[in-house]
Amino acid sequence: MKIIVIGAGAWGTALAISAARNERQAHAVTLWARDAVAVQQMAAERVNHRYLPGCGFPPALNVTNEDISKLLAPSDGRSFDLVIIATPMAGLRSTLQQVAQTQCTVAWLCKGFEAPLEPGAPGLLGYEVLQSVAPHLQAGVLSGPSFAQEVAAGQPTALVAASPHESVRRLLVEAFHSPELRVYANEDVAGVEVGGAVKNVLAIATGLCDGLHLGLNARAALITRGLAEMTRLGIALGAKAETFMGLSGLGDLVLTATGDLSRNRKVGQALAANKTLEQAVAELGHVAEGVYSARTVWQRASTLGVPMPITQAVVGLLDGQLKAHQAVAALMGRGPVSEVY
Ligand SMILES: NC(=O)c1ccc[n+]([C@@H]2O[C@H](COP(=O)([O-])OP(=O)(O)OC[C@H]3O[C@@H](n4cnc5c(N)ncnc54)[C@H](O)[C@@H]3O)[C@@H](O)[C@H]2O)c1
Ligand SMILES: O=P(O)(O)OC[C@H](O)CO
User: Fold this and answer.
1) Do 112 and 88 touch, CB atoms closer than 8 A?
2) pTM for the whole structure
3) Which of 38, 151, 196, 199 has the fewest CB atoms within 10 Å, counting from its CB?
């Protein structure tokens, strides 16, 4: 299969390496980056020093900075079977617009809500952006618990490929399933995307909790009640409850909320150490989608009448309206409720 990965951050690079290393499939993989200097460096040194240091490129991985519309032109004999969009959520709309004319199957990897395009408009999940930009595309999303460094190193990982189209799910499995990477299929795109977006916000909360040394009980409570609020929002957006027991729900929440490789968790830890949000984001050097999605998650939930107290506390913290101890007090000071999602 011929695969192009658009966006050479940590995750795009890791998945491109994993697919190119899969000898059973013998894929030809192209990694596209917008920075021509970075492409030159990656082509010469066969490693992405900036975003994924120490992970060498297999021979079947090529890097390019050529014009995307030319690369994807159907008349071009080099065109691809699968286009993977590996930008952060902020780049999804513009990249979908660039690939809208392709005949290829498309999938994105980003986990978050797009920021509202104008005040009062709802911020959108990836499949909603697709509906507004290129509804005709055969497309889907790849998500699940997966730190880029571990996938690049070939450590066992399981992902989920979600699409309403069976052919898209099948192609994504064929592209990425390997002895080191299991890819499950799921039709519930809304559920998979809500899980991937909301777990980032919740990981900021658990990072803060652990940074403040509130204890293991507090972290378990945050994860469990976070799962409940994630599920509530998902159901209100048309998702299936059982999806949140899967890889993109519970799986990614546990990984991101507890794994010290998580950028979102690191933001919470930095805020607990009294750093400003600007400092926390700057020292990451990578995107932490929860910082940009939290407000939108809260707005979508509020519009739908879905209570999301942990998300609300994270928004207060990120907006500078709450100090860390006030966020904890706001959560713990609420009256008793039934344990339902
Ligand atoms: N890193 C991981 O372990 C991981 C795992 C699963 C999913 N994700 C998700 O994948 C997405 C990308 O994460 P990442 O870790 O690769 O981020 P990163 O911060 O490591 O890199 C982001 C990359 O995207 C590029 N980029 C930004 N805007 C772009 C645009 N408009 N067009 C083209 N390229 C653009 C940047 O130049 C950079 O190369 C995020 O939504 C993240 O939540 C990351
Ligand atoms: O480092 P984070 O917090 O962006 O999380 C990375 C992946 O989404 C984990 O599945």
Assistant:
1) yes
2) 0.97
3) 38
State the pLDDT at residue 23.
87
Instruction: Name the residue with the closest Cα to ligand 2, atom 1.
Output: 262
Of 248, 264, 252, 247, nearest to 210 by C-alpha is 264
Ligand 1, atom 39, residue with closest C-alpha? 9
pLDDT band at 77 (very low <50, low <70, confident <90, very high): low
- Taking residue 39's Cβ as centre, other Cβ atoms within 10 Å add up to 18
Identify which of 223, 197, 219 has the alpha carbon closest to the alpha carbon of residue 298: 197
**CA distance linking residue 213 with residue 333, whole number of Å:** 19
Structure tokens at 108: 């994105």
What is the b/e burial string over 229-253, where b = at least 16 CB atoms within 10 angstroms of the residue's CB?
Answer: bbbbbbbbbebbeebbebbbbbbbb
Q: Is 199 annotated as a binding residue?
A: yes
Name which of 93, 85, 162, 161 is nearest 124 in CA terms. Answer: 93
Q: Does ligand 2 come within 6 angstroms of the Cβ of 186?
A: no
- Residue 141 neighbours by CB distance under 10 Å: 27
91 lines ligand 1 (CB under 6 A): yes
Tell me the C-alpha distance between 110 and 94, whole Å. 13
Is residue 203 within 6 Å of ligand 2 at its C-beta?
A: yes
At residue 340 the predicted structure's pLDDT band, cuts being 50, 70 and 90, is confident
Looking at residue 178, the DSSP 8-state letter turns out to be B
Q: In the 8-state DSSP scheme, what is residue 243?
A: G
Contact 306, 197 (CB under 8 A): no
3-state secondary structure of 55: strand
70 classed as catalytic: no
Mutation to probe ligand 2, out of 146, 147, 202, 253 (largest number of atoms < 8 A from CB): 147
Q: How far apart are CA 179 and CA 119, in angstroms?
A: 46
Instruction: Give pLDDT tens digits for 273-324.
Output: 999 999 999 999 999 999 999 999 999 999 999 999 999 999 999 999 999 9
